[in-house]
Write a structure and sequence with these properties.
eight-stranded antiparallel β-barrel, single chain, 213 residues, mainly beta, four-stranded antiparallel beta sheet, Porin, elongated
Length: 213
């Protein structure tokens, strides 16, 4: 019975595929797409400091806007705009354990050049490569005793990107997007008494609704 149901579902999907392809508007040169949704910013723990230990930053979920412009049906430029808050610390410091550095905000605009191999399909995947520049600001919050100031320096990073658009209507799309950003900002504590580099290299995973103009 289950085999028959699966076979029937496959047959129905196969029969419907041409109709779905015909109904899809697809991606065209000159399209401008505005998206709004949520992203998860998921840093890894890595790097080093002058007193030992490993820098670490917490995960964060935050709203995001993104803008996509199609140079051709297959080639697009995408820019994301969001800001996220992270708790930061140094783990496994010899003789001290974990040192709390408070919190910091990150503003990580990322420009990506994307390739869309199936621009006419309702399910339209893509891959991309891009450049990130992250601005760190708002350092503060509760810190371990003896920590008077923390400065996380702005940094450049490379990004890889993969995702998929689903065309709901000719103008409305749903999107799933994954980015990996290689990001290693320098960190100064107490005016440089302690220095380090945090290899954050975050995954950025987002879902959004997009409107195509």
């Amino acid at each position: 019975m289950n085999v028959k149901m699966i076979a029937a579902a496959l047959a129905l999907a196969t029969a419907a595929a041409p109709a779905l392809a015909q109904d899809a508007r697809g991606k065209r040169a000159g399209d401008f797409v505005l998206g709004a949704g949520l992203i998860g910013v998921l840093p890894v723990s890595g790097g080093s400091t002058s007193i030992g230990g490993t820098p670490s930053a917490s995960d964060s979920v935050t709203p995001q806007l993104d803008f996509t412009y199609y140079i051709s049906p297959n080639i697009a430029l995408n820019l994301i705009a969001a800001t996220s808050r992270h708790d930061v610390e140094v783990q496994n410091v010899p003789g001290a354990g974990t040192i709390d550095l408070g919190r910091v905000w990150a503003l990580p605009p990322t420009l990506t050049l994307q390739y869309h191999p199936l621009p006419a399909s309702r399910f339209s995947p893509y891959i991309g490569v891009g450049l990130n520049y992250t601005v760190f600001y708002g350092e503060g919050g509760g810190r371990s005793a003896g920590i008077n100031s923390v400065d996380v320096e702005n940094a450049w990073g490379w990004a890889l990107n993969a995702g998929v658009d689903y065309e709901i209507t000719p103008n409305w799309l749903a999107n799933l997007d994954v980015k990996r950003i290689w990001l290693s900002p320098d960190v100064r504590v107490n005016g440089g008494a302690v220095t380090g580099q945090a290899d954050l290299d975050p995954w950025v995973i987002g879902v959004s609704v997009r409107y195509r103009f």
